[in-house]
Design brief:
This protein is α+β, with helices and mostly antiparallel strands. The protein has one helix and three strands. The chain starts with a strand and ends with a helix. InterPro entries: Class_I_gatase-like (IPR029062).
Length: 58
Amino acid sequence: MLFSGWDEEGAPRAAEVPGHPFFIGTLFQPELVSGPGSVHRLITAFTAEVSARAAVAV
């Protein structure tokens, strides 16, 4: 596990599993700042990975 995101005070707020296609745990809530025409980068990255893997599985 790799801590990869911190808050303004330096406390860890996101962790990843290196080598996994897309595993991230976060205490941030990207859905709260997303809206029509302005989607958070974490949500965009997740949906892109899901789409790419779905295309390979078909």
